[in-house]
Amino acid sequence: MKKALKRRNLGKVFIYIAMFGLVAFTALPLIYVVSTAFKPMDELFVYPPKFFVRKPTLQNFSELLIALSGSIVPFTRYVFNSIFTVSLTVIITVIIASQGAFALVKYKLPGRDWIFSMILAALMFSPHVTQIPNYMVVSSLGMINTYWALIIPKLAAAFNFFLMKQFIEQYPDELLESGRMDGAKEWTLFWKIVMPSLMPAWSTLIVFTFISNWNDSFSPLIFINSEAMKTLPLALNTISGGGSVARAGAVSAAVFIITIPTIIIFTLMQSKVMETMVHSGIKA
Amino acid sequence: MGSIIDITKEKNAVQTKARWKHKLKVWWNRYGIGYSFLAPYLILFALFYIIPVIVVIGISLTNYNIIQNPKWLGIANYRLLFTDDDVFLISLRNTAVFSLISGPFGYIMSFMAAWVINQLKFRKGFALAFYAPSITSSIAMSVVWMWFFASDRYGMINNILINFGIIHEPVLWNLNPNTILPVVIFISIWMSMGTGFLVFLAGFQNISKELYEAAAIDGIKSKFQELWLITMPLMKPQLLLGAINSIVNSLSVFDVAKTVGGMPSPNYAAHTIVAHLYDYAFIRFQMGYASAVAVVLFLITFILGRICMKVFSSKDIY
What we know:
The complex is a heterodimer of chains A (about 280) and B (about 325). Chain A is mostly helical and about 280 residues long. Chain A folds into 2 domains: about 1-55, no CATH class; about 75-275, Orthogonal Bundle (MetI-like fold). Chain A contains 14 helices and no strands. In chain A, helix 1 crosses helix 14 (about 250-275), helix 3 packs across helix 14 and helix 9 runs antiparallel to helix 10. The radius of gyration of chain A is 24 Å and the shape is globular. The two termini of chain A are about 45 Å apart. By secondary structure, chain B is an all-alpha fold. Chain B has 2 domains: about 1-60, no CATH class; about 85-315, MetI-like fold (Orthogonal Bundle), CATH 1.10.3720. Chain B is built from 14 helices and 2 strands. Chain B has helices spanning about 1-60, 75-85, 85-120, 125-130, 140-150, 155-165, 175-190, 195-205, 210-215, 225-235, 235-250, 255-260, 275-285, 285-310; strands at about 60-65, 70. In chain B, a hairpin with a 7-residue loop joins strand 1 and strand 2 (about 70). The termini of chain B are far apart. The interface between A and B is large, with 91 and 99 residues.
């Protein structure tokens, strides 16, 4: 009995060690991002290369702001472009996906199975497939090189609708009925009663929409060709100037600024996301 | 005789019209508000997701350069693609090699990690550390990995390998056609291990403890037996979503390949299907030909997705 217990504990220790190893592999490059962003110039080019920063400094960030302020597009402009387009996308997509999924489930609309199977099908192909027709639509609407090109084609993401629909299916009809008894209009019913209780679901949509659009570089690559309208991922190419050594400090600061926001927003919302993802499987 | 029939016909027509009007009104009262809630999403979804699939198939049968009207070609684009375009065949092979390694590996790793992490203390912390790479910008993180894989002695990986005496000269990771694709695969695995992870972790948390207790009484002995016989069948919906995500993600590899190998990459070693699509559509503006590439990508992902739906069908358990 004792022996078995001992073996079990040994197994546990082994699993913890293995998991720490795996987590080190996933986390170390991210720790390196943080460490490098605060390295002074001489530490960036020391040989042999050092993993951790010795004398942390904000020099790289000021270089990023000052060195680029002389060029046509200051770094703050890229930051603004990213924040503006991503925020607008997040707000609109959350609203239309929530009210759409709510209507599809709770009003028992005719054709809903058909509509939902289309949305499931859309999960199954890469967004690159539709880029050519999307480009034609965007360009015929005169939206090339505008913020709208980065926003409108992204609004109807299938995964958002899918996740919201799965979550709303758990929402009890009785709450709606009692709201209607009190004489609430459908619109107020939705905003005052339904939306607050869907909070975990739309928090999750905020997280996922923010992450995927913040990181997206394909849409700006095809819809944007003016430097002033580029978002952060593409700006990285401009900043690094095709890999010139002089900009190494600015690049490491920019990488930090691009990488950290998604991790922070996920960390803040982690428990809401887990609560929603419980309903995320596809029952086929 | 004829006039009587005409009159009844007219009467009927008026009646049906009125009936239709009435039906429409009832229908509108019942569903109008619902459809108007759904409309904004549905219109955008149709415009940017469904209609484009039909349009892209149409364009792929033509010669179209955006400026002039499309010219009908039939299946000529496809014939060219598969018989004469060596670069496309290279991209197809690269994407296949990439997907066959990084897809299953990332999928299995994220499933096993979710299984183990679900049973550990500090679950939240482990989950965050494991998931974090998959929510980072692939362009930014490719830049970071290229610091590690730098082709000179300053590159940390070259440095370590030289110190251990495994190599004597620095490896030209992103310049040598033989090492480009392995580096792309390595970075992508690092980034994609988290893809299905959250779905799996949530799935594990959702399975009730009593089920395991009952199973233990019924004679399930090891953890692995439990995983295979109890957990896996209940996890089919999550396994399906994870599989579809992983197929779509790995077949549309582009960012990492472009950042590591450049475009075009040496010997097209990092040329992928999406790279080929991007090249023809948005650099050469040969939309017809590029659409044929898009249709091939569509068919591959869609068929694999359908197969997954069959494999992970959960009809038998619900």
